[in-house]
User: Fold these one by one.
Assistant:
Number 1:
Amino acid sequence: MAHRTLMNWSGGKDAALALHCLRQDPDYQVTDLLTSVSAPHQRVAMHGVRVELLAAQARHLGLPFTQLCLPDMPDMAIYESWMRDTLAPLQAQGITHAAFGDIFLEDLRAYRERQLQLVGLQAVFPLWQRPSLELLEEFWQAGFQAIVVCVNEQLLGESFCGRLLDRDFVRDLPPGVDPCGENGEYHSFVFDAPYFPEPIAFRLGERVRRTYPALAQGAEEVGFWFQDLLPA
C-alpha cells in the first residue's frame, strides 16, 4: 500500500517538481499540501506569493490545502510548536510521510528529519543530491512554467525579480549562484504544470524591496526584492 504523504508546498519549482516525482512513484500517495503562511500579510513565508494563488494551485491539483499561519518573524520555538499542532490532525487522517523539495542542504535535511521523528513522521526528499541543471531541464521538459517572485539582493540584482524561470534566466545568473536557487538566491511561483488542467492566470503587481535581520550576529540587514502577483 502506498504511503499517505503530505507535500510541503511553497508553490515554487522545487516543491512542484518533487510532487511530480512522487506522483510517478507507486510507493507514495500525496494526499495533502501544507504551506507556511505569514498570517498578517496572507502570503507564503519568504516567497511573498498571495495565498489566493496557492489556493488556485491546490484547486488545480484537487488536493486539500492546509495553512500553517505564523506571526511576523516567529522564533523557532513558536514555529516548531505550531507545526506540531498543525500536523496532528493530518496524522490522525493517516499521513505517515512528509515530502520536501530540498536538493542538497544537509543541515536543513537533518533538521527536518529530527523534527518529524519527534512526531512519528518520516521525511521524503525526491530531488535529493540531483544536479541543479539536470532538475531544471526535467522541469522544463515536463512542461512546467514559473516566474521568479523573490531575489536576495546580496546575490542577484533587482532585474532578476519578475522574470520567467527559463534558460535565458539561468544563462544570466552570476558565477557562484546555484541555478535552482538552493542557497536562497531566488524563489519562484509555478503557474503551469503537467498536472494542472490549465495555467493559473495572474498579472504583475508592484515590485517592492524588504529588509530582514541578518542571521549572523553583528551582520547588516539583508535586502530582498519581491514581485507581487495579482490573481487575474
Note: Residues 22 and 28 are 6 Å apart (CA to CA).
Number 2:
Amino acid sequence: MTNDHSSVGPVPAVVRLARYTTTDLQEILGDGSDPFGVADSGLTWLPKEEHFGIQHDGRLVAHAGLLRLPLSIGETITDVVGVGGVAVAPNVRGRGLARHVMTAALDHARTMGPRHAILFCRPPLVPLYQRLGWQELDGDIRVEQPSGSVVMPLRTMWTPLHENAEWPAGEVRLLSLPM
C-alpha cells in the first residue's frame, strides 16, 4: 500500500466541511511552519467560518474557506466575502482541484449576500487566480492589524458574486483583520 495520490482520476465531489483544523491543513500541505508562504508578512489573520474540501482515499487534498467581512471603498462601507486558506496537496496539483473547490466555495458565497469576493495571494499565484476568473486590484489596500491599519503586502484580487457586480472606484480598506 502506498500513499501516492498522484492518480486522482475523476475529480471527487467537493463537500462542505463541518470544521477545518490545523490538523486538516497539515493533512493537505504537510506540517511546515509557513504553509502559505506568508509568515514573513507579519500579519495576523482571521479564521474562516465556512469550509469546503475535496477528499481522496480518505484524505483531505483540497480546501477553500470563506468569511464575510466589512470593507470600505471610497466613502462606501459594504461587506465582501473573503476567500482564504486555499490549499491543494502538492502531489495532486495540476488536476483542477483548486478550480473545483473554489467553484463550490464561490457558489456558496453567492448565497451570503455580498456582491464581491476578495482574496490575498503571493505574486506567483496571481496567474492561477486570473485563470479562475479573479481580477487584481490596483493600488494599496489597507487592512486592520492589532497595531492598527497597515498596507496589505500581498496582492489583492476580486471576483463578482452577482451579475453586473463591477468593482467600484475608490480607496479600499478592509475594516477587519484579513482572512
Note: The two ends are 38 Å apart (CA to CA).
Number 3:
Amino acid sequence: MTTQDSSGSAPKPPAKDPWDLPDVSGLSVGVLGGTGPQGRGLAYRLARAGQKATLGSRDAARAEQAAAELGFGVEGADNAECARRSDIVIVAVPWDGHAKTLQSLREELAGKLVIDCVNPLGFDKKGAYALKPEEGSAAEQAAALLPDSRVTAAFHHLSAVLLQDESIEEIDTDVLVLGEVRADTDLVQALAGRIPGMRGIFAGRLRNAHQVESLVANLISVNRRYKAHAGLRTTDV
C-alpha cells in the first residue's frame, strides 16, 4: 500500500545512490584508434581488469598485431568490425580524423554506447592550446554525427604513458563522465571503476564537454614543467 504525506501527496521515492553502479563486467568494449597510445593503453587496462576488449584500426592487420602484443585476450579488427562486435565503443582517434571516422561508422555504431575521449588541441611554440569545434566539443560533434548512438564523454585526462606501463598496478585518478542519460553515464562510471585506482565521476551534460576536453592542454603544461604524468582527483566526493 502506498503511503501519503500530510499534504495528501504520495511521498517521493528515495534518491538514487550515485555510487550504485551497474555490473559491466560482461560487456565487450571496442576502442577505435586502438593502435594509438591512448587507445592501446585503455584497451590494455580494461583487458587486464577482465573486460573483453577489441582494438580497432583502419588496418585490420595492424590492429591484430597490436592486440597480440597486449595479450589478456585482446582482439584486433578494422574499425567497422570492432564497432559491430562491441557493446561499448571508445573513440580514441586523432582529432583531425574524428569527424571522418565517425561519419564512416554511423551505421555500425547505431544503438551503441559511444564514449568519446578525443581532445581537440593545437600545438605551437608556446605549447598546447584548446581548439573549439563548431559543435562546441568533440563529444558534441560525435553526438551530431551519430544520432542513433548514445554518446557520452570520458577518459580525457589519462596519461598514455601510465596506461601502457605494465609495472604500474593502479592508475591514481578520477575520470570525469559526461552525458545526457543517467543510465549511460552510470555504465561509463562503472567501466572506469573496473581499472584499479580509478573512479568515474559524473560531471554534467555534453554541453559541458568543451572545458573538460580543453583541460588536457593545462595538464600537458603541468607535465612538461614537473616531468610528471598528472591526472585529476575530485575532492569531497
Note: The chain has a mean pLDDT of 95.
Number 4:
Amino acid sequence: MSDPTRRGELFGDANSAGRFTGPTTGDERRMLVDVLHAQRATLQLKCSGLGPELSLRSVEPSTLSLLGLVRHLTDVERRWFRQVLAGQNAPALFSSTADPDGDFDGATDDHGAVAAAWEAWRTEVAFAEQFVIEAPDLDIKGDDSWRGTVSLRWVVIHMIEEYARHNGHADLLRERIDGAIGM
C-alpha cells in the first residue's frame, strides 16, 4: 500500500493541539466550558499570523471574511451573555437593525479596525467566561425575543454550535488566503 500524503501541510504550533484536552467525562459545566473554549481557540488559530488578509472575502457575492467572522462572533457573544442572560442594555458593536450585515460588510483591512475587532472579541469572551464562572448553575434563565426563555446551558450549547459552524467557514477562508489547512 502506498504512503498517503496530504495535499498541504497542517498548520498550527505545538500549543494548538492543547485545544482539545478537556475532560470527556464528569462535570457537565466543565465539559461544556472546555468545548466552548476549544472552539474559541480554533477561531484564533484559523486567524493566526494574518493581518490585513483577515478582511479578504470568500467569493462574490459573499462578504464572508475571517475578520467578519470575528466581528460576527463578538456580536453573538455580546447578545447572548450580556443582553439575554445578564439583562444589560448592550447593543451590538458591529451590526444593527439599520445595518444587519455590518459585522461582515464593515470588515476592512485597516490595522486599527482589525485590532479593535480582536479587542472587542476578547472583551466579550472574558465577560462570557466570567459570567459562566459566577453563575450558580446552568439553569439560570434569560428572555430572548427570538427563542423566548433560554437557560445558560442552552446558550453555551448554542455558542459551541455557532463557533463550530463558523470555524468550518474559517477553514475554507484560511485555505483560500494562504493554503493553510488543519483542524
Note: The chain is about 50% helix and 5% strand.
